[in-house]
Every structure is written in structure tokens, then in C-alpha cells.
Request: fold
Amino acid sequence: MRSATDRPSHYAAAHGMAPIAAVRAHAYTIPTDAPEADGTFEWTSTTLVVVEIEAGGCTGLGYTYTDASAAALIRDTLSQVLLHESVDRMTELTGRLWRRVRNIGRSGLCANAISALDFALWDVNAKLLGVPLVQLLGGALRERVQIYGSGGFTSYDDGQLRDQLAHWVHVDGCVAVKMKVGSDPARDPARVKAARRAIGDAALFVDANGALTVNGALQCAEQFAEYGVAWFEEPVSSDDLDGMRRVRDGAPAIMDVAAGEYAYNSDDFRRMLQAQAVDVLQADATRCGGVTGFMQAAQLCDAWHVPLSAHCAPALHRHLAAAAPRLRHIEWFHDHVRIESMLFDGAPKPDHGTIAPDLARPGCGLEFKRADAEPYAL
Reply:
């Protein structure tokens, strides 16, 4: 394996002259290990779209969790924006990608596709320079990043819930865990009580995925406070910024209100911060524009003096989280942790509730295990 300080032997004196030779995208659907559900959705599989960009003899990697049609969008439409262009012109190229989807619709599928491409652009540039990705972001502000265990699906019985949350606390060393609520609000207080008993003094978070009304969320917040719940994520839809603000204003003081996973660009983050809708802003680099979009969210949080939390995809976020100001933690989401450990060499493992960027590997430090992924290919 090449060390982070060695440049490729074919690296040109002017690496900006390295043209993008190929853009590839493939989709894989991986079954869950048990049925999963939250306050608004049920699923039995997760689709991963993997992107590779070749330039100067190196291959950059990016990925997103979205519909398989994003792979066709990348291959048939977005790749034409990048092919044969100088790979180091990341800001210009990403801007071109956003302009290309103007009449398609920027949010959702297009944003997810651009996020994976942007991440691959950053990754290949770091590999061409022979440095870890965090170095391109200005260096690490922290050596290790705290994670919180996340799952606790509403489809789980109380035994599954307790076992999963307790494992994160007592085995992985997480100081906080999160569970889903909202599909059956009448049952949630008992589930929260069971979770509290399983994790002891660890911090307990809940996520309603926008399932509740404002009044319903405020009632739940009062009930959850009895068990020391410290985080209420998307109590109402994050599209309802006024409703989010009302819940934030009325929730117990011990409880942070969080949202942002469905923000697709910096304007979405700015509007959420201006509305004072959250105590903690979440950003997901697989949705909000990749490395570029995530770091824009980090700068907005810094300007507004609001903490930032990385949503899901922990293997992808660890370099970004190490470099982002006001970063609080990364979500150690059950689905994504399982998939990333299966399909990516170099996926992180918890150490006393933290993960760290691998500084011995160039780029994001991940290699896609194509043969292992092939059974799940679409």
C-alpha cells in the first residue's frame, strides 16, 4: 500500500493537467439483517450507488445511499460534464454539475448523484497528491471523532431494542445512542423506558423522522424528558421550519432539537439556521453535495455558532468530521455500518466510542471490494 507521503510515480509536475479519463457508477441493493422501520417508512433493503473517477492513473471513490436510478443519471448525463476535464478544477466542475441538473431538479436524486461525484473528485485529487483527504481540507481539528450508535427501529421488539443499544454502549464504548420513534406514539414511552434501562447513564437520543404534529411532538418531548432524552430529531417534518422552531421553543431545556439530513444544498442549511429551527444541524455528505457541500454546512454552523453532526455513512464522513469546525459527532447508523464493513476495505471500527481518519492511506482511505459487492449488483 502506498504511504500517504508518496506521490504516484506517474504524477505530473502540473497535476492540474491530469484529465478525467473515466466516470463509472454502479448500484447495489443489500438486504437488511431484519425488517426496519421508523416513524414514516419501512424497508427491507438499502441501495448503495458507488462512483469511481479515473484521472492521472488514480481512481477516486464516492458513494451515496439512494435509488438505483442515480447510477444511470451519472452514467448517461452527469459524466459528460466531467470527462476529459482537468481533475483539479473541483469547484468549477461541481458548479457545472449543479447547472446541468437545473431543469431536472436539484434536490433529491440529482443532489445524491452530485454528492457521490464530488466526493470522488476530492478523493482522486488527494490520491494524486498522495495525502489523506483531511489534509486537503486544511488538516484535522481533532484526532478522533465521537460516534453515537443509531438504529433502534420501530420494527424491533423490546428485546432487540435493548440488545442493540446496550451493545453500542457496553461493547463499542458509545456515550450516546439513538432510537426511532413515531410510528406508534402511544407505545413510545415504554420503549424509551426500556432503552434507558439497557444503556444506563449513556445519553439517549430519539428520532421521529417527521412523523408527529407540533402538539404531538411537544407532548412526546415532555414524556421522553422523564427518561433523560437529550436529543429529539425531526420531531416534525424538517420542511416545516416554523413547526420545528415551535417544538424547539417548547421542548424541555435538556433536549436538543436536531434536523438537516434532508438538506440538499447550502441554501437549505441557511434557511434552517435563519429560522432558528435547530439546536444542532445535521449534514449528510451523501446528499448535500459531497465534500464541498458538507464543508459549506460546517462553515455556516461556525458562523451561526451552532453545533454540527454528520448524518450516517460514517466511513465516508470521518475525514470531513475531523476537519469540520463545531463538529459534535458522527451517526454510527446500523445499516450503513454493516454495509461499509462488508463492501469497503478500510472501513472504520469503533475505539472507545470514536473513529478516526486513516492517515496512512491517501484519499478517503477506502477501497471498494468489487467481488464482494457483485452478488448485490443491479
